[in-house]
Amino acid sequence: MKHIVFLIKCPDHKGILADISSYFANKGFNILQCNQHTDTIANRYFMRLTLDGTDLKTSRRALESDFIKFAAERQLDWSVHYSDNKPKVCLMVSKTSHCLYDLLERHNENELHCEIPLIISNHPTLEYIADQFKVPFFCLPVENGNKAEQEQKVLDLLKKHHIELVILARYMQILSADFINAMPGHIINIHHAFLPAFEGGDPYSRAYERGVKMIGATAHYATAELDRGPIIEQDVERVSHQSTPDELKRIGKDIERIVLSRAVKYHLENRIIIASNRTVIFK
Amino acid sequence: MKHIVFLIKCPDHKGILADISSYFANKGFNILQCNQHTDTIANRYFMRLTLDGTDLKTSRRALESDFIKFAAERQLDWSVHYSDNKPKVCLMVSKTSHCLYDLLERHNENELHCEIPLIISNHPTLEYIADQFKVPFFCLPVENGNKAEQEQKVLDLLKKHHIELVILARYMQILSADFINAMPGHIINIHHAFLPAFEGGDPYSRAYERGVKMIGATAHYATAELDRGPIIEQDVERVSHQSTPDELKRIGKDIERIVLSRAVKYHLENRIIIASNRTVIFK
Amino acid sequence: MKHIVFLIKCPDHKGILADISSYFANKGFNILQCNQHTDTIANRYFMRLTLDGTDLKTSRRALESDFIKFAAERQLDWSVHYSDNKPKVCLMVSKTSHCLYDLLERHNENELHCEIPLIISNHPTLEYIADQFKVPFFCLPVENGNKAEQEQKVLDLLKKHHIELVILARYMQILSADFINAMPGHIINIHHAFLPAFEGGDPYSRAYERGVKMIGATAHYATAELDRGPIIEQDVERVSHQSTPDELKRIGKDIERIVLSRAVKYHLENRIIIASNRTVIFK
Amino acid sequence: MKHIVFLIKCPDHKGILADISSYFANKGFNILQCNQHTDTIANRYFMRLTLDGTDLKTSRRALESDFIKFAAERQLDWSVHYSDNKPKVCLMVSKTSHCLYDLLERHNENELHCEIPLIISNHPTLEYIADQFKVPFFCLPVENGNKAEQEQKVLDLLKKHHIELVILARYMQILSADFINAMPGHIINIHHAFLPAFEGGDPYSRAYERGVKMIGATAHYATAELDRGPIIEQDVERVSHQSTPDELKRIGKDIERIVLSRAVKYHLENRIIIASNRTVIFK
Q1: What is the CATH number of domain D88-281?
Q2: Which residue of C21, C32, C36 is in closest CB contact with B18?
Q3: Which end of chain C is more exposed for a tag (fewer CB within 10 A), N or C?
Q4: What predicted TM-score, i.e. pTM, was given to this entire model?
Q5: How far is the C-alpha of D48 from the C-alpha of B71, rounded, in Å?
């Protein structure tokens, strides 16, 4: 194993950096990277620590159970991630292919540190892409008020495949709060607008109506409130009076692709700490 | 005189380009530039025509009265602009200096084709900058319910100085509908957010709360509805979890400067046609 | 057929717009779009004219032979493009997959108005992607001084498949002047640097050495001089001291993809006129 | 005093973070910020440490002489900066005003943590701006082979005013190696091109000739080799075939302003460590 990443958040207090870095130094770890952020408004401290995995001389369990005591005394809220664990990721889609294509292609090119054991869709449209990339495809339509039932089937599939991250790659269904709360902080959505502008449906038509000169896309963690979860990444592109709604949609596709893939990458590299409704991202 | 610019909008119909360009060619004008836009959704046609001013062999009055007939037959909504006319511009400010500095500096560097005969403020704070650049400064405070009266004084000053364009360079007062309707399409405002996100007050604090990863600024024509007028220009800058509201404000200043100066430039170069609540901008 | 596009370049002279637009208006054509550019330095005029194809009442041959006379009298250098013609495009690649993936994916999503009857590579590496997208793949290695022979085989394939555009989608072989001159203005290359910086090999390592704070990519028409042909499109991305050469390569991939696909789109939509070593692009 | 900033560079080795952070923690300092970078290629470690200045219980001399010993044992190359010290900065200009205006304006708005006791120019052109902002202006022309003499006069002025940073704000003279070596790492230049493209003179004309689709500007530390010093900041703007060399110059001005002011800010906030010919910048 190459790396061990600790993500830590806690109340800010004097001496915390020396305290934590000495803890790991004393255990013989080389600290390869250490990023910190102090939120001086909320008085909170955030840290991402990358240790050299080859320095681990005990079991992982021993490492963690020792750190639990250290953390408890200092009110640390933490998680640990080992680089030899490849998280299992489920892609959820509807009829739009560009984000699905992009993620599968990046996965093929080893840009995304994960496994993709399945794709779930509420439409059969994109099955041919799943076939192209040889990923199992499950079509679970939403119809006739079967939404709760459909979501349960999705959750069952996620559980069965030990999914740690769900990517809504233009999945055009609003998920229930129950579904989202089953995986808090582990569902990434791409919204095709520069949030908080144009929350909800049909943002490109509304952007056209408003006559904006740039359009954008936003990747965020899904929460029970639609399009209001912690933002991970955003980007924009310049448009003009010439851009019809269809043209905006086409231009937007490239932004969505880039923004979603960056957000997924940050998550998979354990660079994100959620802080109430904001994200701390250590690049 | 070097150039004559015609701005034209009308219902779209076949043959209109040949029709208009032949009209001017037959009068002996060299067409230096011709930009067009067809709004296929609203079925409207827009044109910006730059003629060689040295080809004008009649009086301006004769040119215009002849064109009036041509235009009426074709339902053209039009305006004409002669390059030897330098529009008179009034800057309105409050306490924030960066946009004022930027516009005065660009004016000094001959980047803005206009005269700036006066600056109006509701606070005395920035008088020293007006002094630095030797521009008359009028302080007209808004207090104790004198708003209508104050606005009337402003309008009187605008009239007296033959002002053709008002630039709200971070003027922190909401103007009445009456004021705005006195100069429709001739008041440019800079809003310190990426509209339609964060309309209204204190956008940087709200951007911080929402945890956005980019902030922006928007220059638009002021209309009776606050921050809802036709957008002229927008731009954004990347921010991060490290950016406090104060830092956002500082980063935002550079975007505001650039966006406002671009919008003013487009207006002064007669590149903008307002089309309902959108702008057609011929760059 | 929906559209007919004329691309025209000629010496600039008075009345040319009215002259050309009247020509087509008199033939009963609705001019859907007309873009022009006057190069005041070289005194050259450029025009892109989109006609409503349903207004064509004669044969294409008749349209063209009539226009030939009109054009000769005015020294117009021109070409005409009918929207029901789908140009045939050949992708040339080596071992790097991201540009190939991107183009095939966009083609599948109907973003590129062309057919892709074949992919040619000097390595077998990417055949699996050609298979994924069901495009014939030809592996023609360059080895033991067989370069001239290999290029002849490529040219034979291009001829056989009636190829009108070759896209060097990270084809890591320098083409001979003979090859390039066989298709002047019809070979698009993507260079993984912001030209004219870092012409030639290994630009990312050199960008790292130089400590640049942004990296870029450039799409250009290939000419006999390596990386010196007319530039079509460029873009950049911000990097930092943290970016190793490998990281630059990864970041660069996204820029290359976007830049190449934009350039190809402009070409296929007949938006580009080459003017000595520069391009006029009507967006 | 609010902050003490230590900038440190040294060979990378295990335990260094815990080592240094414990050193300051043991002395009772709160570490407000700690940024690090490990250059895994050169095997070098870089650190920027911000201490709470109110925790300083000894003299500055005592702090430093104690740290000297600590540093020597670990081969640390370091500097210390106290926030109550306002560095004295000299602006050098020729005939172009936009960068001068921008820096003076930002200084007036308290964006730049420095004093500007003098402006030096080889032309009298911009004296009126110095007057506007009430900064002493020294005109030292370069003529008739007096360059060495002129440079000596400049150096004398710098020494007399205890200048710690020289900003070449479009100073159109090539400085001698002797001059530059008198203040290594303390002269910032703005080059009006995206280095390493278009080193040397007249970059905008050459950018026009080459037909680039973006132009840029680069702020870097001046070294004896013209336009080859460590890059601090770069940015670009999109241009088109319509942009004449004059238009490029105008567009470039806004990029130059922004890029230079960012670079100066990073320097004045002690965010930059020079590492051979590259810069590590802790934002």
Answers
A1: 3.40.50.170
A2: C21
A3: C
A4: 0.96
A5: 68
